[in-house]
Amino acid sequence: MEMPVDVVVVGAGPVGLLAAIELGLGGARVVVLERLAAPSMAIKAMSVGPLGSEALMRRGMAQALANAEARSVAAMQQFITQPGAAARGPGSKFSGHFAGLALIRKDAQKEPERRARPVDQQGVEAMLAERAGALGIEVRRGCEVTGFVQQHDGIDVAWASPAGAGRLRCAWLVGCDGGRSSIRKMAGFDFPGTAPTSTFYQAVAEIDHPDRLLPVGWHRTPAGVFSHGPVPGRLFMLDFTGPPEDRQAPVTRDEIEAVLRRISGTDVRVNVLASANRWADNTRLVDSYRRGRVLLAGDAAHVHSPFGGQGLSLGLVDAANLGWKLAAVIRGEMPDSLLDSYTAERRPAAEAVLQNTLAQVAILRPDPQAGAMRELVATLMAFDDVNRLIGETMSGLSTRYELGSARDEVGRLVGDVSIGELMQDGRGVFLDASTDGKASQLVRAATRWVRCVAVDAGPSMLVRPDACVAWAGDDNDTDGLEEALRRWFSPALESMS
Ligand SMILES: Cc1cc2nc3c(=O)[nH]c(=O)nc-3n(C[C@H](O)[C@H](O)[C@H](O)COP(=O)(O)OP(=O)(O)OC[C@H]3O[C@@H](n4cnc5c(N)ncnc54)[C@H](O)[C@@H]3O)c2cc1C
């Protein structure tokens, strides 16, 4: 058996890579095992939500994100000039959609500057892989995890690659192996939810008469939903006649052409199919994100339909939430009960996404009842409060972990870029607005994993490494600060008051 490591992360998708970066920054010895020999080129996410983007920016990827965004915007220019695209372009007054209703208004949002970035999944994975490489994190490609045995003090992980097979001993196993997670199945996690009802397609194709297709944007037709853009040749079709017969079967040109003709109601042919995938509205969530020494993050823990582009960001925030906590447990600074807060915080966030995607499916269907409900939702979205509620639900900005504080900012994830810049090394931040310096003294006595920074304006805030506000206080008030430091960083901290 190979030399032990602290953590084996299974899967070098976006979530696995960020989890490994977080763990590495926290001082854990981590290895990522990925069954694919090279990154997947399948089309998946086209954008990354605000909380996911901020998680990347906090760990040294702000410039890479800006560069990738500039490339995406250039690719989209061609569509942005078309009729119907006004709802999507950078200058638009809208910032997303609910079930294809592109009515979420920037002017109704509390924090419109916290926005999704139009960077596709390959772009996100590439910047994460580069960052992981720069931090010296080992990512073993072409290496599939085939089984594991959990012992009381560690896990023996079995892997196989074209060059052979082996075993690796670790203390913790983190399954970031996607929606069909074998880690989830092998570890025996419950995965309750609703079975798929419909089939959805995403494709990049060359069409003989693209001009005949409906303009850019989502269109509910008598047979389903059809959309094209925001990049040339990208098609998106929702077929509500039933779930896929065989989800594993390759998607053929004939299948895409038939569905495209039927749903768009247009006489077009697919000349070349560059890539295509088919998925369903399977909606499931694990009951707990941890079983013993096995933890799950990302799609491995939750699956849902991709409407509104929420899955990638949801998974990245899982990784950010888990990484620093597990690293603190591995360093021996925190008991493993800290990991209970991972499920307690992230499961409700996933639940909210599952709920809103189910609701979106319900009003996308082509039947008249769905149409009537859709009209009602569109009418309600004219009200600022409703618009904000739906906007914050879709962006994830409504996320607030229940930490037991009456203050609204406690439990929220801060998005301030300048605060994120202080957290590049994986540590938390204490923003000290007090005048007597006592609060910073307390923080320094408790942990070296929080950087103290004096600020001119309050409130003072203890920000965890995942950007969650763990405590806030006004003026020279330190009430509850020691308790927060004990809870998140230093359980044995002696009272200084
Ligand atoms: C068609 C489609 C469109 C989408 N659109 C959006 C969107 O617009 N916005 C958005 O936010 N989200 C979108 N999503 C969701 C988003 O793609 C996922 O939420 C995201 O990929 C989750 O990342 P992950 O790292 O958890 O899993 P994955 O990206 O699935 O990565 C899992 C990795 O684990 C590897 N693996 C699996 N099993 C093993 C094993 N046994 N051993 C080793 N490696 C293994 C896999 O090869 C893979 O690389 C979309 C998804 C689909 C399918």
In terms of quaternary structure, the protein is single chain
The shape is globular
Overall CATH class of the largest domain: Alpha Beta
Low-confidence stretches: none
Please give the alpha-carbon distance between the first and last residues: 50 Å
Give the C-alpha Rg: 23 Å
Number of strands: 20
Biggest β-sheet description: 8 strands, mixed
- Structural class of the secondary structure composition? alpha+beta
Ligand list = flavin-adenine dinucleotide
The number of distinct helices, counting runs of at least 4 residues, comes to: 13
Beta-strand portion reads 15-25%
Overall pLDDT metric: 93
Notable features of this structure?
497 residues, alpha+beta, FAD/NAD(P)-binding domain, Alpha-Beta Plaits, Glutaredoxin, five-stranded antiparallel beta sheet, 20 strands, 33% helix, 22% strand, globular, binds flavin-adenine dinucleotide
